[in-house]
Amino acid sequence: MNAVATAALPPDIRLMNAVSALLVAALLATLAWGMVRWAVRLPVFNLRAIQVVGDVSRNSVASLRANALPRLQGSFLSLNLQEGRAAFEAVPWVRQAQLQRVWPMQLKVRLEEHRAAAYWEARVDGADAASEASAERALVNSFGEVFHANLGDVEDEDLPLLAGPAHSAGAMLQMWRALSPAAEQLGESIERLDLSGRGSWRASLGSGAVVELGRGSEAEVVERFARFARTISQVTATYNSPLLSADLRHADGYAVKLRGVTIQTPGKPVNRKR
Questions:
Q1: How many domains does the chain have?
Q2: CB hemisphere CA count around 189 (13 angstroms)
Q3: Are 215 and 252 in contact (CB under 8 A)?
Q4: Tens of pLDDT along 212-264?
Q5: Is residue 215 domain-shared with residue 232, that is, in the same domain?
Q6: 24 three-class SS
Q7: What is the 3-state secondary structure (H, E, C) of 157-175?
Q8: Is residue 49 classed as helix, strand or coil in its secondary structure?
Q9: Is the model's pLDDT at 11 over the cut of 80?
Q10: What is the DSSP string of 104-149?
Q11: Residues 125 and 239 reside in one and the same domain
């Protein structure tokens, strides 16, 4: 039937022919899609090997097999790579996973593991820096991200403890790194860093001394602590007493407590404890 004859057909016949053509096309597409779905599930397309590269120091083959493989669904062709990535990233210590199909019938998985930089305690709403009330302890990685893993895996590592409001782990790790050089000048380390809900910082040193750093921007707090680190050794040497605590929240100096001595500087009376 030529174009002239087709145009001469009644409108209802032309509509019927168009609908029929669409139905046939839809049926053929459905059949083709069904055949493709059937074909990709044939045993010949099953995964034959999974190659894991990258960071694997924290996860053994047995751990990956037990935690990730049961969540992989599909064959070499039908496997959803995003879902596969999520399966591997659900494994403890895995920060990121990249999946790639490798012919024939192999899956290549590149892992990036968390590198623990600190312990983490999210402070309960309303708790201040002096409170021990906190949520379950977790870990902070080198990117300042909180993650959960077996804490026993890092028992032999000298990690500081960060305790502050939820979602502040990254800023706290950055502050700890900024404060550490001044602490090292004192021959100390910052074993614990607290941040209150009101934004006040407190550092607990390796010797057991506690330093109230106060509020302010990172630069202000770091400068305040650096100034303290440059001068406190003169005070401890003068009285030949170790530092117990210090309060840097004074505009014109700081107050310190030494073992057996209480001092306020500058220009403040010295009170010896009896």
A1: 3
A2: 6
A3: no
A4: 999 999 999 999 999 999 999 998 888 899 999 999 999 888 999 998 775 55
A5: yes
A6: helix
A7: CCCCEEEECCCCHHHHHHH
A8: strand
A9: no
A10: TTEEEEEEEE--EEEEEEEBPTT--TT---B---EEEETTS-EE--
A11: yes
